[in-house]
Design a protein that fits this description.
Helix content is 39%, strand content 20%. By secondary structure, the protein is of the alpha/beta class. It has helices spanning 12-23, 38-43, 56-64, 79-89, 128-142, 171-182, 200-213, 229-239, 250-265, 275-280, 290-293; strands at 3-7, 27-32, 47-50, 68-71, 95-99, 149-155, 157-159, 184-188, 194-199, 218-222, 226-228, 243-248.
Length: 294
C-alpha cells in the first residue's frame, strides 16, 4: 500500500502525517481547495489535486488512483464530505482513515472536574451538541460491511510543532493568545476540568501504524498524558511572564471562542485511554509533557 490521498494536507495534523509518510517512501497526494499552496506542497514531494470535498465526481476520480484515504480536513462534523468518500470507496477494500475529535467525551462541566476515563469499548451517550460527530464515527466504522477498511482516530488536545505547512495546533496557541490579551493565564470556572493530550509527532506516528496494521472497523483514542486547564493556565503565566492565572466566567470563553470552543474546547473534561493503540498497533508515544512544550 503505497499511494495515500490526504485531505487537510495544508493543516497541522494532515501536514505532519504527510511528512511521516514521505519519510517512509509512500506516495502522498493532497486534495487542496485552491492553488495557493500547490507549489509549496509539490516542493516537499507531495502531489496535489485541486478541488472540493463536496465534488462527488472529483472524489471518485481521486480515490480510484489511490490505495488509502486519510480524511483530515477541518470537517469532523461534515457528514456530506464523509458520505462522498464512503460512497466512492464502497467495495474497493481500500483504507479510509477518518479523523474525529475528543470533544465527544465532553460533558459541558463548565470548569468542574470529572475523572471518568473513556475507552473504546465504552458505549458513548454524547451530549446533543456532539451527537452528530459520534453518528459520523459509527457510520465510518460500519462501512467495513461495504468493503471498506475503515478506521477512526480520535485525537485529544494536540501540542507541539507541526512538520507540514501549518506549525501550530489550535487549543494551546489560542489560550496563549487570549492570555496575552488579558495579561494573565486564563482558565474558566474552577479550571479543574482535565483534557488528555498528545504530541503531534506521536499522533502522526499513530496514523502510520493504523494505516499499516489496523483491522477494518477499528476506532482508536489517542493520548499520552493529561492536564487540567488551570494547570495549563498557570504554566502559560510563568512561561510568558504574565500575571498569575485567573478564572474567567465560562460565558467569556463562549464569547471569545464560540460555543463549541468555549463549552467543550476549554471548559469540559475530555479524558481517555490509548491502551488499545499501544497494544494492538504497538504504538509507543515518546512525548508526555504538554507543560514542557508550553
Amino acid at each position: 500500500m503505497k499511494k495515500v490521498l490526504i485531505t487537510g494536507i495544508t493543516g497541522y495534523i494532515g501536514g505532519t502525517i504527510a511528512k511521516k509518510l514521505l519519510d517512509k517512501n509512500y506516495e502522498v497526494t493532497g486534495l487542496v481547495r485552491n492553488e495557493a499552496h500547490v507549489q509549496e506542497l509539490e516542493s516537499l514531494g507531495i502531489k496535489t489535486i485541486i478541488g472540493d470535498i463536496h465534488n462527488e465526481d472529483l472524489i471518485k476520480a481521486a480515490v480510484a488512483h489511490t490505495d488509502a484515504v486519510i480524511h483530515n480536513a477541518d470537517s469532523a462534523d461534515d457528514a456530506y464530505a464523509v458520505d462522498n468518500f464512503i460512497k466512492a470507496l464502497e467495495g474497493s477494500h481500500k483504507t479510509f482513515i477518518f479523523t474525529s475529535g475528543s470533544a465527544i467525551f465532553g460533558g459541558k462541566e463548565n470548569g468542574k472536574r470529572n475523572d471518568f476515563v473513556y475507552r473504546e469499548d465504552f458505549p458513548l451517550a454524547p451530549r446533543l451538541e456532539m451527537a452528530s460527530r459520534v453518528l459520523i464515527n459509527n457510520y465510518v466504522l460500519q462501512s467495513v460491511q461495504n468493503g471498506i477498511r475503515s478506521i477512526v482516530i480520535v485525537p485529544t488536545m494536540v501540542y507541539g510543532e507541526g512538520l507540514g505547512l501549518k506549525k501550530d495546533s489550535i487549543q494551546i496557541p489560542a489560550l496563549i493568545n487570549f492570555s496575552e490579551k488579558k495579561g494573565h493565564g486564563v482558565y474558566f470556572g474552577e479550571g479543574e476540568n482535565v483534557w488528555s493530550n498528545l504530541h503531534i509527532e506521536d499522533l502522526a506516528d499513530l496514523y502510520v501504524l493504523a494505516l499499516e496494521k489496523a483491522k477494518g472497523g477499528s476506532i482508536y483514542y489517542a493520548e499520552n498524558g493529561a492536564s487540567s486547564l488551570r494547570n495549563i493556565a498557570e504554566v502559560i503565566s510563568r512561561k510568558y511572564n504574565l500575571a498569575p492565572a485567573r478564572s474567567l466566567n465560562v460565558q467569556e470563553a463562549v464569547d471569545h471562542f464560540g460555543p463549541a470552543g468555549g463549552y467543550f474546547g476549554f471548559a469540559s473534561n475530555s479524558i481517555c485511554s490509548a491502551d488499545k493503540a499501544r497494544t494492538e498497533l504497538e504504538w509507543k508515544p515518546v512525548y508526555n509533557s504538554i507543560e514542557n512544550f508550553i
